[in-house]
Amino acid sequence: MSLFRPVTHALRVARTPKTFTAYRLPAMKKQDLINYGQKRTSIVSVHRDTKEDNPEIPFEFTAENMERAKEIIAKYPSQYKKAATMPLLDLGQRQLGFTSISLMNYVAKLVDIPPMRVYEVATFYTMYMRHPMGKFNIQCCTTTPCQLRGSDDIMKAIEDFTKVHPGDTTADKLFTFQEVECLGACANGPMMAINDDFYEDLTYDSTIAILEGFKSGNIPKPGPVSGRKTIEPIEGQTTLLGKEPTDMRKFTRSDL
């Protein structure tokens, strides 16, 4: 099933004329279409050995991260330490830069479970990157709320700036670009995540400016770029406009 899912995704994009990426789809053979779909999803569900990712490349936590790993494992009952799989994978990914096959095997040994159980986790959750990544991982949301607010412009801005398509990494290994589903900041769309930080209320120009900051080393402050602090109405406060809060004693029994 997982083999053909990218194909159906690519076909859906190809026959949707208003989709941002539709114009990039030439006539493709079936295998090319499969490769295209797998590349767009940026997710590897079947491991293939490469020189950067194979079981012969050793992995182990640094001394500092091993202490963190021990603290993570200690949070769970000894018979359930397999529950530490996800945070340990995240810790390893932050150390290595991506979730390699050696990292997954290492975590399996730490929590005493078959490696396959770790593979199942790492290939299910999209937060585990199965390719070597750039220094800054750009994830642009194109789900409905963001798309209605102009996520196509944000996608174009990222492509124009990085000169790569979704699923690719720039030649200097600075940026990896991914098109993703909802990141949970729907009220502030369109938005993108760069590593752990959200940038919201974006426009084409503000997206370019943010990426310029990352490239130059002047990393911008995360959050809305429209002047909002959180998700308050952009036009200003619309409720609780009185000078003083309501005195609830006027509406309740005095003996309560």
UniProtKB/TrEMBL annotation:
Cofactor(s) this protein requires: [2Fe-2S] cluster
One Gene Ontology term from the biological process aspect of the record: mitochondrial electron transport, NADH to ubiquinone
Keyword Lipid metabolism: no
An annotated GO cellular component: mitochondrial inner membrane
Molecular functions per Gene Ontology: 2 iron, 2 sulfur cluster binding; metal ion binding; NADH dehydrogenase (ubiquinone) activity; oxidoreductase activity
Superkingdom of the organism of origin: Eukaryota
A Pfam family annotated for this UniProt entry: 2Fe-2S_thioredx
Keywords: 2Fe-2S, Iron, Iron-sulfur, Metal-binding, NAD, Translocase
Keyword Hydrolase assigned: no
NCBIfam families: nuoE_fam
Family note: Belongs to the complex I 24 kDa subunit family.
Protein name per its UniProtKB record: Uncharacterized protein
